[in-house]
């Protein structure tokens, strides 16, 4: 337990560790701060959380791989019964500059009252990103429960939220930002999503696809599910979706030369300003199947 600076801060070429309980009580202090500085054949971070992580007024966990030549992977795992909680900052923040992958597998709750639940960024050479969670919440008005944005030109991004997702802003934000990217986005929400803005917001600025499987109910003030590609296919499968002010399900393929098809299957009831909206600016088809009621 620390009341001032970081509770546990480690800087090394590569880091492998298992934590117990860590508590940071000082304003702006981080419970666990790990920086990997290694380059080629180095720069990996492998952290197993085996005790509650709490920062009352700062970030919970920060993992930073800061060498462009790093080839090591970044892995964060928590075991059941061990939560990650932050006050003023993000519960989990991961930044990578190298070419390794990012894997997050959290078996218990992640919660933030002043920032994002999980926030991940990489650079152009980054590898695949995979995130699997239990419940995740970000309770401030600007807080995203899960926010993953990749600048990689090749990486796939896969998100699986097995627990409830609650956010003041977006429930799940996923983006591939490079116009030259070839990676695909996949999002699965197996429990409820409650969001002050979009329930699921997925944007692929490259040529790859987006797949969203919303198994649990989605309740949002903006779009329930929004998916935008620049040529790639969009597949949305959803149960019950309620938007109070915008579309329940919204899919846009925006490239006039793109051949990606849009497929939407609503297995439950969908409601919003417009229940379902699909727009394909390219040569691909649009297919919509509604098994329940659609209101808009």
Give your account of this protein's structure.
The chain has no helices and 33 strands. The chain has an eleven-stranded parallel beta sheet with strand order 1-4-7-10-13-16-19-22-25-28-31, with no helix packed on it. Strands 2-5-8-11-14-17-20-23-26-29-32 form an eleven-stranded parallel beta sheet, with no helix packed on it. With 296 residues, the protein is mainly beta.
Number of helices: 0
Overall geometric form: globular
Question: What's the average pLDDT?
Answer: 96
Radius of gyration: 19 Å
Which structural class do the helices and strands define? mainly beta
End-to-end separation in angstroms reads: 52 Å
Instruction: Name the helicity range.
Output: under 10%
- Give me the count of strands: 33
The biggest beta sheet, please? 11 strands, parallel
Low-confidence stretches: none
Instruction: Tell me what portion of residues adopts beta-strand conformation.
Output: over 45%
Cross-sheet strand order for the largest sheet: 1-4-7-10-13-16-19-22-25-28-31
Distinctive features:
mainly beta, single chain, globular, eleven-stranded parallel sheet, 47% strand, 296 residues, 0% helix
What's the short version?
The protein has 296 residues and is mainly beta. It has strands at 8-12, 15-19, 22-24, 32-36, 45-49, 53-55, 61-65, 74-78, 84-86, 92-96, 102-106, 110-112, 118-121, 129-133, 136-138, 146-150, 157-161, 165-167, 172-176, 185-189, 193-195, 200-204, 210-214, 218-220, 225-229, 234-238, 241-243, 249-253, 262-266, 270-271, 276-280, 286-290, 294-295.
């Amino acid at each position: 337990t620390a009341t001032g600076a970081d509770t546990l801060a480690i800087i090394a070429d590569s880091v492998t560790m298992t934590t117990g309980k860590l508590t940071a009580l000082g304003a702006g202090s981080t419970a666990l701060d790990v920086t990997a500085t290694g380059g080629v054949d180095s720069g990996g971070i492998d952290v197993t959380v085996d005790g509650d992580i709490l920062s009352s007024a700062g970030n919970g966990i920060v993992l930073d791989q800061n060498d462009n030549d790093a080839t090591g992977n970044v892995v964060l795992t928590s075991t059941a019964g061990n939560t990650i909680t932050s006050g003023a900052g993000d519960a989990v923040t991961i930044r990578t500059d190298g070419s390794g992958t990012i894997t997050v597998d959290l078996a218990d709750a992640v919660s933030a009252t002043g920032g994002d639940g999980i926030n991940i960024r990489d650079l152009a050479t980054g590898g695949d990103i995979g995130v699997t969670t239990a419940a995740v919440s970000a309770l401030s008005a600007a807080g995203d429960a899960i926010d993953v944005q990749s600048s990689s030109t090749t990486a796939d991004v896969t998100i699986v939220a097995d627990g409830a997702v609650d956010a003041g802003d977006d429930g799940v934000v996923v983006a591939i930002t490079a116009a030259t990217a070839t990676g695909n986005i996949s999002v699965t929400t197996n429990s409820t999503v409650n969001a002050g803005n979009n329930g699921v917001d997925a944007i692929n600025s490259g040529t790859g696809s987006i797949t969203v499987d919303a198994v649990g109910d989605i309740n949002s003030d903006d779009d329930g599910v929004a998916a935008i590609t620049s040529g790639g296919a969009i597949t949305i499968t959803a149960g019950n979706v309620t938007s109070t002010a915008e579309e329940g399900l919204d899919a846009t393929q925006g490239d006039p030369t793109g051949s990606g098809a849009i497929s939407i299957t609503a297995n439950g009831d969908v409601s919003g300003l417009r229940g379902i909206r699909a727009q394909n600016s390219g040569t691909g088809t649009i297919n919509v199947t509604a098994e329940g009621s659609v209101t808009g």
